Amino acid sequence: MSAKTLFIGPFSPPFAGDGVKNDYLREGFENEGINNIIWFDSIRRESGIFAFFLRLLKLMITSKQIIISLNRDGRFIIIPLFWFLSLFSRKKGVLYIIGGSFDKQIEQLSSFRRKIFVKMLNRLDGIFAESKSLQEGVEKQGVKNVVMIYNPRKDDGFRWRLTENNKSKVVFISRITDSKGVTVLMNAITEIVNDGKNISLDLYGPIDENYEHFFYKFIADSNGTITYKGILKPDEVQSLLTQYHFLALPTYHTGEGLPGILVEAGMTGIPIIITRFNALPEYFKHNQSALFVEPKDVDTLKKEILRLLEDDKLNKTISSGIIKIVVPFKLETVIKQSIDYLEKYKWIFNKVNE
Q1: Do the beta carbons of residue 205 and residue 240 sit within 8 Å?
Q2: Which pLDDT does position 353 carry in this prediction?
Q3: DSSP H or E run through 74
C-alpha cells in the first residue's frame, strides 16, 4: 500500500528553469510507473490567494510523503510549514534545491533564524543538491542528509555537427537580462562585426521588464546582426541547437546553479562558451568540454568566440567532451537516483508495472 505523496513546485509555463526541471521530474517519475503522486503547481494561476493556500495546506496535512522543489521564496515558506505539520503527524519529506545559492541564502539569515531554519531542514529525510560545491556549502551551515542529484534533462536524440549552414551563427537561450550576460555578449558580437567578421547572434528567452527597452534598442542598432527569436518550449530546444555554431552563456547571475540549457547543449554536443562562475567550473573543463571566460569580460569573450570561429578542431574537441560530461544528467539516471534515495528513506510507492 503506497503512502499519499505530494509534490510541491512550479510547472511550465512559463518555461523557466524551475518549472522545466519539475516538468522533467514529473515525466520521469511517471515513466517509472509512479503515477499516484499529487502534483501541486505552486504558481497561482486562477484561484484567489486564500483558496490557493487552503488547498495547499489541506494537501500537506493529508499527505504522508512530501517532495519540495521550489526556489528561494517558496522554500522559506513551505519548509517551515512542513516542519510545523510534522510536529503533529509523522511525515516524510525531501527537498530538491533549485539554483546554486541556497547555502548563501541560509548564511545571510540572522544567527537565530539560521539556527531555527537549519533545524527545520534537518527534519527532512534528504536534501538533493545539483552540485558538489552546493552540497558542501549547505552542509557547512549544519544541514544533514545532503546528497548530490543533477539537474535532469531528456535526451531527444538530436546531434550537432558543424556545417556551412550553421557556421558563425551564435545562440543564447536563457532569461534575457543583464546578469545572464546578455549585454556582455551583444557587445562582444558587435565589436567582432565592427572588426569585419561575419557573425550573427540569435537570442531566445523571456525578457525581464526592466531590461526590455535597452534590449530592443540594442537590437535595432545592430542592423540585423542580433535578433530576438522569442521563447522556446522544452521539446524545441535540442533540435534548434543543432542549427547553430555554438551557444554562449556568459552569466554572472547570483543564483546560478547549473543552467539546464547547458545540459541540453551537452545532449546535442554543441560547443559552449560560459563564465567561470559559481559551480560551473565543477562541471566543465576549459578547452575540453567548454571555453571559459571571466564574468563581464568582453575582451576575453571576443577572444574565445574568435577561437571557435577559426578552429574547427577545437569545435570537435569540445563537442566530444561535453557529450561525455552530461551522461549523469540524463532523466532516466536522475530519476533512478531519486527513487533509490527515497526507498532508502523508506518511502513507499506503488508502481504500475509491478
Answers
A1: no
A2: 57
A3: helix 72-86
85 neighbors 60 (Cβ within 8 angstroms): yes
- What's the Rg (C-alpha) of the chain? 21
pTM (two decimals): 0.81
- For the stretch 245-285, pLDDT in tens is 999 999 999 877 788 899 999 999 999 999 999 888 989 99
pLDDT, residue 352, reads: 65
pLDDT for residue 350 is more than 80 = no
The pLDDT value given to residue 255: 77
Supply φ then ψ for residue 92, to 5 degrees: -115, 145
241/255 Cα distance (integer angstroms): 24
Q: Which burial class, exposed, middle or buried, applies to 343 when counting CB atoms under 10 A from its CB (0-12, 13-18, 19+)? A: exposed
| CB contact burial 261-293 (16+ within 10 A = b; e otherwise) | bbbbbbbbbbbbbbbebbbbeebbeeeebbbbb
Strand 200-204, strand 92-96: pairing: unpaired
- Residue 196 CA to residue 321 CA, distance in Å, equals 31
Beta partners for 227? 202
What's the rounded Cα separation, in Å, for the pair 212 and 85? 43
Task: Label residue 354 by pLDDT band (50, 70, 90).
Answer: low
